[in-house]
Amino acid sequence: MPGDADIAAVGALLGDERRCRILLALDDGRALPASRLAAEAGVSAATASSHLGKLREGGLVTVETHGRHRFYRLAGPHVGRLLEAMVALAPPRPVTSLREGTRARALRRARTCYDHLAGELGVGIMRHLVDAGLLTGGDGHRDPADPPVGFGQDVDYRFTADGDTWLDDFGVRLAPGRRTIRYCVDWTEQAHHLSGAAGAGILARLVELDWVRRAPKDRAVTVTDAGQEGLARTFGV
């Protein structure tokens, strides 16, 4: 019979800065080659291979083989939620260059959190869904004077009948067999953004419309000219 959960085993994997860089690079849900992850972590290919092996053994990443190349991705949304929770608790890194400052601003404006939108854009979309009566269960945001949002404050968000109609009309496709609504506490905005099948479906639809484009090398999301108009019209952001 197994004993209590060995949290320290996961903590040991996350206690190495290079492995954390690898995991954050994978936090947009895409599969990346080992060479790219080595560059993200700032280590040699052999060292990256060692770290990736430990992350695989710990159940945090999976590997896909395409010909002679191996691509790694997070083991699932649950790992993405773990990373987002840890990011919310972690102190910010000091910005020491213009390049780092530019990247930090881009990530705050709009980024992916595994397979859904986060940052100002993700929070703004969820806020609109709540304010428009399409999503119920909480206010979706907080007053700046309120204390920080906590992870123990479970909110039972649900789509209203109008919300279900909006999902169909907007062309959001929900993955079968997956919980429709989840939410994350956004680490930069200290408010909720939408995850689950609905969050993933909305991001996929926005990419399909070419309103947003995922950056080729990190979690940042770029809003196109068409997206500026479409997002303002549809979500008021």
From TrEMBL:
Residues 1-94 form the HTH arsR-type domain. CDD domains: HTH_ARSR (cd00090). SUPFAM superfamilies: Winged helix' DNA-binding domain. Gene3D superfamilies: Winged helix-like DNA-binding domain superfamily/Winged helix DNA-binding domain. GO terms for molecular function: cadmium ion sensor activity; DNA binding; DNA-binding transcription factor activity; lead ion binding. GO terms for biological process: response to cadmium ion; response to lead ion. It holds the Pfam family HTH_20. InterPro entries: ArsR-like_HTH, HTH_ArsR_DNA-bd_dom, HTH_Metal-responsive_Reg, WH-like_DNA-bd_sf, WH_DNA-bd_sf. PANTHER family: TRANSCRIPTIONAL REGULATOR-RELATED, TRANSCRIPTIONAL REGULATORY PROTEIN. This is Transcriptional regulator. The lineage of its organism: Bacteria, Bacillati, Actinomycetota, Actinomycetes, Pseudonocardiales.
